[in-house]
Design brief:
Strand content: 5-15%
CATH class: Alpha Beta
Shape: globular
Number of domains: 1
Number of helices: 11
Helix content: 25-40%
Distance between the termini: 43 Å
Radius of gyration: 19 Å
CATH topology: TIM Barrel
Number of strands: 10
Order of helices and strands: HHHEHEHEHEHEEHEHEHEHE
Structural class: alpha/beta
Largest sheet: 10 strands, parallel
Amino acid sequence: MTNWNEVANGILAGDAVSRACAMEALRAPHEEALDLLAAAWRVRRAYFANKVNLHLLNNAKSGGCSENCSFCSQSSQSTGAIPRYPIKTLEEIVHGADEAVRAGAVKYCMVISGRTPTERDLELLCRACTEIKKRHPIHLCVSPGLLTVEEARQLKDAGADRINHNLETSRSFYPRLCTTHTWEDRVETIRNAQQVGLQVCAGGLVGVGENLVDRVDLAFSLRELNVDSIPVNFFNPRPGTPLAGITPIDALDCLRALCMFRFVNPSKDIRAAGGRETNLRRLQPLALFPANSIFTQGYLTTDGQGHAADLEMIEDAGFVIATIEG
């Protein structure tokens, strides 16, 4: 039996956890679940106290993607009934930022579908960043697909603070999920963003058919890339996609994954992201002990439990909403 309190002691003393320890976290028996969560909480508390960062997404361009990501309802392979529309207007995107501020979010993330941003889409996103920064101090994240260094620089100059570009899974498992671009393409985008001084939000999916080694590999790849924020998405199979028939992982496996990501990346923003409500169900509040941030008001093509319910959950669990700093 692993002494999870000692694991936390080591992390807080500056020790990096090993792959073997990360695997043990994912394999921890049910009777160790509370000890595992308590250890993750100690690490999370050291960096983020009892604060929860709220992030709000705006699906600014939906559907019609050329890529064949088998998990995604916006991909070329999906026949799912989702909203499909071109990029929103400048006014609509800026209005979304106003809503994010009213909701108490510290990050507003503008997401567009597609392999890469078109010239028009990039120009509109840049204009939106500039306009929003004139109005609000909220931190801006853009999820535009694959980026060159020059495109990343344009976003940075316009006022974007961060880009999102998930690795999704391990390098070895990625070809099972997508073949129209590579895992290495995603890494290149992350490095391009970092080169121009943008922060990076990069995480992935658990429960898409990968094994536990793949989950550990993903966590360690993100550590090696030194990303700033890690959204952990719990796969919620979407109708019309090739992975529609996958059985979701259970709630305790979701919590084990969050604890493992916290141990491997102790100081990073760890987000209980997509699939939180459907996979964790009544154990949702426990996700706040290893994770320090959540999305509120829904996701790209699925609804969440609602902003009011999120706030109630956070308060009931003894946490407080973080405010924008700097």
